[in-house]
């Protein structure tokens, strides 16, 4: 059989002829990345903080380690997860579909959190095989989510959590029904992912899951080809979503986009990769919590969650020392922040429900502003938050609760219309700034 015509041969060889870019961070960034890893290690060593599987994943995907501290953190994670998930779904003569009767009907499946924990077990050294009940629980949650998707057109939790669940099962070489995978492909194709116009995180997680399923040959040949195309389409979408500052979506979704470039190998040829890494390094101060550090660090070490599937336990360098976080400097004086609450949804009796100037200390966070408003006018302003690994999450304002099953959430904007990219406990408004809490749908 002869060679193909010369133009076709050049076309086939073009990717190999293009100058390859290094998928590692720039040489001069090693010190800053190491310091961020050390700060995360310091936070992980604090026994008063709830263990977070994403933090453990970031520690395991790093280039340097503290094996003893990582082992203690893993033991705390096992403690936290074995209690609720260590029992069989078929215990005590109940069917697995009745086993959740003790949970509140309003509580959504814990798909994403359990998925991250299973990824963490695979990242341990040596990898830990999860108890069968853990995999069964995750498959159960995915089935619950799939039922929600069939009845409502979307998962009960979110496509983001659902994608994490599929990725975790794939990394553990567990098959997922092809029907479920095709529903994810359809959701991506029809633009049903995410909310607020920012789908980067969700599309990235699905691309990682698609790439894993295709590479580990856990689906048929025809579906594998479609998954490969979808993953590369997601990579192109990431590049298109990049702003002139190098950020893709927002600063916190940028690490997810970088994971896709790394997992698909397009980090070698895609200019958006280097620009996004540079943007991440320029904005490291935005990653001040354990959860946000855990988002950024894997890609700053040139790793993605797909690397968990092929990690090898060699001689890991025991060279990382925990670094304590420096307390925020005190800022003297006071400031005033305009706090606005809006409900543009058709069932709200009016658009603007609250509009007040709130005096607070100069160093106050947005959470401090909300607490000050509630203290000043307890009858006119009240709110509730939910603790998450990313910090407190705003769930209810003026008695209006954001509910996942209703597909609404409290969007926070700086006037007139810029979405806030930081958590309410981390963002510190400027004097005279107007902040809008808006009940929105996705």
Tally of structural domains? 2
Average pLDDT figure: 85
Percent strand equals 5-15%
Q: Classify the helix fraction into a percent range.
A: 40-55%
CATH fold naming of the largest domain: Glycosyltransferase
Structural class: alpha+beta
For the record, the CATH class of the largest domain is: Mainly Alpha
Terminal residue distance: 55 Å
Poorly predicted runs of 5 or more residues = 1-20, 89-106
The side-by-side strand order for the widest beta sheet comes to: 2-1-8-6-7
What's the count of strands?
A: 8
The succession of helices and strands, N to C, reads HHHHHHHHHHHHHEEHEEEEEE
Number of helices: 14
Description:
The protein folds into two domains: 25-92 and 107-310, Glycosyltransferase (Alpha/alpha barrel); 334-441, Ferric Hydroxamate Uptake Protein, Chain A, domain 1. Helix content is 44%, strand content 12%. It contains 14 helices and eight strands. Strands 2-1-8-6-7 form a five-stranded mixed beta sheet, covered by helices on one side. The protein starts with 5 loop residues before the first helix and ends with a strand.
